[in-house]
Design brief:
heterotrimer; A alpha/beta (about 375); B mainly beta (about 100); C alpha/beta (about 375); A: about 375 residues; alpha/beta; Peroxisomal Thiolase, Chain A, domain 1; 2 domains; nine-stranded mixed β-sheet; 13 helices; C: about 375 residues; ten-stranded mixed β-sheet; two-stranded antiparallel ribbon; 12 strands; about 20% strand
Chain lengths: ~375, ~100, ~375
């Protein structure tokens, strides 16, 4: 149940002026798709039951030679192209993923090297399950706010692995998103009006060092994990900003499946229309660190100037990062440079379950 | 296939400069009996591509369907991961070609 | 100074499980020496052509190892140029005699491949290619397949046309007791065989083989009036880019054209003067391209000429690969270049038995390294 802020003076932004914002974005969805029905058939389950329950039809699968790094580079390149800056102008690179190729050795530097960022940048790999990259955005906003940097690159990328026959197999997917944040008003396409975060130590989903596949505790991942953190963070964000759900044109939530974001949006008082543009999970599954950011990109692909976007990510373990964005006039020009998320979703080749096992190096 | 981290490091600048460059397929084949290091990937397509700046390159074609295997097909250079023989080996990334 | 062949020998080629590399070498060297009537102590130096000993067997320093087998401590050299190692070893041996350094030289080509797995061998052979080719996962069949594609598209030739090379060479192989394969194959057999790299199939490709071949060569003053004396009248080498992708053409090997032209010029001969040739048919397409590069056939007609038996024993004009070539006789990589010489010598001397080319007076050997990075051409006459 959602409690509206009574006496909220509503539509005007807070006193603090928005300084930083999104300057550009890039997304990459690998070409291959595995239908949920193919997985269900493999394990003798009813495909329609699964599709209905999870609200997912198919998921994005990487080529056998793709990983979080290669996909991150694809997304990063598109963001740099949209920003129309030299890659050497990027002064921070944060890479969020739970499928980094190395346990020890930064992927952020590999991505930066191949994008031509040079050597003078703040950087690290971040891990916080599916919210690693949004945490990276917070760090970047800090660097921007203190005027330490002019432009920062944040990438969320995952080539998610799931154990065959496990429930996660239907949703664990692969994609990458890249965001360039900056301070220059003339370049920002979506200002960051507000941000906050809500975390606790909640072991709903984890992967031990050296373990190939993650573990999760079934229904514990729902109410006490996903819903509690998103709802609490959302309440904080609304309170802080003194805004109401109806003030927003769009809302974006982390999408572990098609059911959860729809449920949490409803719980918070958002409508189907507000949520619709971000719901990419139905067609590509859950690409973990790229999930909420892909939803955001999908919204940015179609938004008009001066629209507010309510955004809350979720990472197991657990926590939620909330942002309130407001699009600017600049968005129309830069939108034209994007490879729309919907277009990439439709650019696909279906593969069989056994091909999927090859692509994910299971056999 | 050698996996020297030094060699990987030396190649980076050159490889980075090729990402995103366009080209055309000059010739193609499908390797069905692979070398040891690519055993898991077979069958795969190897192509000779004339890249934008005029030089020829040899590499794998990725994300292709049968109709892409033709002389003159436009491609773009992408970065992809190469298989490692040992779990402890450093990971190589190399240029491959994707049909446009 | 004329370079004369004093003696030749070759071992059987094939999967010689019971035969060690040392035994192989000894057999070829001793038999060649016996044929020359010379003792090991009368040999000035040993030149060895071999590609894989270091890569597969971790054995370098092959020269020293092999003179141990000879039982004499003479100067010994290993020369390597991928599959052209044999031809290059001979070229260097000839030069050492012409330079006056040695009077009589023993040249051995040897390769022992079957001690290792198919995977290891395929990997090792790619040492003949470039780094880019290795990183692309290219294989030798793959590289020649690219050439076959280009050739077929340019000259409107079919896979059946290419298959004629294997058919011819297997036919010749049935007449060669030293050949690895002594059974015939048909076009249908080739077409049915499994694909290795499109469009090349298993029967378009030469096999993995063990084998050794040796020749003793000398200048005129050292040859004891050998009856039916055969002379090497040209020995030429040329190179081209290591990687296939950098070549100017995928339907012609510039290194072969250049070395061939130099050889013809040196010998004062033209392509049509050649009666018999041993061609480096590592793949069916290789022989097709070779006969054009060497001037036996017009450009674009190589495959058709072969299909029409113009290169076939007893039927053609310039007979190619009477030994069965690499396809049927086998391809122990470093040995091939020398085996080719041995075959031509036997042909010119009229000692080729059932596969004798009638009135063979002038012969040519064509030995290629990698996908055409190096070529060694020799012309011999009696």
């Amino acid at each position: 149940m959602v409690v509206f802020e009574i006496g909220s003076i509503g539509l005007f932004p807070t006193e603090r002026r928005a300084m930083s914002g999104i300057v550009a974005y890039g997304t990459y969805i690998p070409k291959y798709r595995l239908r949920v029905s193919s997985i269900a058939q493999m394990w003798g389950k009813d495909p329609r039951e699964i599709e209905r329950g999870l609200h997912i039809v198919e998921k994005a699968v990487p080529g056998f030679d793709e990983d979080a790094v290669t996909m991150g580079i694809e997304a990063g390149k598109k963001a740099i192209d949209m920003a129309e800056i030299e890659s050497a102008e990027l002064q921070s690179v944060y890479f969020g993923s739970e499928s980094r190729p190395y346990a020890v050795k930064p992927s952020s530097t590999t991505v930066a090297q191949y994008l031509g960022v040079g050597n003078n940048y703040f950087t690290a790999d971040l891990e916080f399950a599916c919210k690693a990259a949004t945490a990276g955005m917070q760090v970047t906003v800090g660097l921007l706010g203190s005027k330490t940097i002019k432009y920062g690159l944040v990438i969320g990328s995952d080539a998610a692995q799931s154990k065959p026959h496990d429930a996660l197999e239907y949703t664990a997917a692969s994609s990458a998103c890249a965001y360039i944040l900056g301070n220059n008003k003339n370049e920002i396409i979506a200002s960051i009006l507000e941000m906050s975060s809500f975390s606790s130590d909640t072991p709903d989903f984890w992967r031990r060092d050296g373990a190939r596949y993650p573990s999760h505790f079934g229904r514990f991942t729902g109410e006490p994990a996903y819903f509690t953190h998103i709802i609490q963070e959302s309440k904080n964000l609304l309170a802080k900003s003194k805004l109401r759900p109806s003030d927003f044109a769009f809302c974006v939530f982390h999408m572990p499946n098609g059911k959860f974001p729809r449920a949490v949006a409803k719980k918070l008082g958002f409508t189907d229309e507000q949520l619709a543009a971000s719901l990419i999970v139905d067609k590509i599954g859950n690409p973990y660190s790229a999930s909420s950011l892909m939803g955001l990109a999908s919204v940015l692909d179609v938004s008009k100037p001066k629209q507010k976007i309510f955004f809350v990510s979720y990472g197991s373990g657990a926590g939620s990062d909330g942002f309130i964005f407001e699009t600017t006039e600049e968005i129309l020009k830069k939108q034209k440079k994007a490879m729309p998320v919907l277009k990439q979703i439709e650019d696909k080749i279906y593969i069989s379950y056994s091909e999927y096992l090859r692509h994910t190096h299971t056999i | 296939m050698t996996t020297s981290p030094v060699k990987l490091w030396r190649r980076q600048k050159n490889v980075a400069s090729l990402i995103g460059k366009k080209g055309k397929i000059l010739q193609w084949t499908i390797i069905r009996v692979p070398v040891k290091s690519f055993v898991d990937s077979a069958p795969y397509s190897v192509v000779i591509v004339k890249v934008q700046n005029g030089e020829n390159m040899i590499g794998q074609l990725v994300d292709w369907q049968k109709e892409d295997l033709k002389v003159g097909q436009e491609v773009v250079c992408v970065l992809r991961r190469l298989p490692t023989e040992e779990k402890e080996d450093v990971i190589y990334y190399n240029i491959k070609f994707k049909p446009l | 100074m004329k370079i004369s062949i004093l003696g030749t020998a070759t071992t059987k080629f094939g999967e010689l499980w019971n035969v060690s590399p040392r035994t192989l070498a000894r057999e070829a060297m001793i038999n060649a020496l016996n044929a020359s009537g010379l003792k090991a102590s009368q040999i000035g130096a040993l030149f060895v052509g071999n590609m894989l000993s270091g890569i597969l067997g971790n054995q370098a320093n092959l020269g020293s190892l092999l003179v141990e087998e000879l039982g004499v401590a003479i100067p010994a050299f290993r020369i390597e140029g991928a599959c052209a190692s044999g031809g290059l070893a001979l070229h260097n041996a000839i030069n050492s005699i012409k330079a006056g350094q040695y009077k009589t030289v023993l040249v051995l080509g040897i390769e022992k491949m079957t001690d290792h797995s198919q995977d290891e061998i395929a990997n090792a052979l790619m040492a003949a290619g470039s780094d880019e080719e290795r990183m692309a996962g290219a294989t030798f069949p793959g590289l020649y397949a690219l050439m076959a594609q280009a050739y077929m598209q340019k000259y409107k030739v079919t896979e059946e046309d290419l298959a004629a090379v294997s058919v011819k060479n297997h036919y010749h192989g049935t007449l060669n007791p030293k050949a690895q394969f002594q059974f015939p194959v048909t076009i249908a057999d080739v077409m049915k065989s499994s694909k290795i790299a499109d469009p090349l199939k298993l029967l378009d490709c030469s096999p993995i083989s063990d084998g050794a071949a040796a020749v003793v060569i000398g200048n005129e003053t050292s040859s004891k009036k050998v009856k039916k004396e055969v002379f090497i009248v040209a020995s030429e080498v040329a190179t081209d880019s290591l990687g296939l992708h950098a070549r100017k053409s995928f339907t012609s090997l510039a290194a072969v054209v250049e070395a061939g032209e130099k050889a013809y010029k040196k010998a004062g001969l033209k392509p049509k003067d050649i009666n018999v040739a041993e061609i480096h048919d590592c793949f069916s397409i290789s022989e097709v391209i070779a006969v054009e590069d060497l001037g036996f056939s017009k450009k674009g007609e190589g495959a058709l000429d072969i299909a029409r038996n113009k290169r076939t024993l007893f039927k053609g004009d310039i007979i190619c690969n009477p030994s069965g070539g690499l396809k049927a006789c086998g391809h122990p990589v470093g040995a091939t270049g020398i085996k080719q010489i041995v075959e031509i010598v036997e042909q010119l001397r009229g000692e080729a038995g059932k596969r004798q080319v009638e009135k063979a007076k002038i012969g040519l050997t064509h030995n290629v390294g990698g996908s055409g990075a190096v070529a060694a051409i020799h012309i011999l006459r009696i």
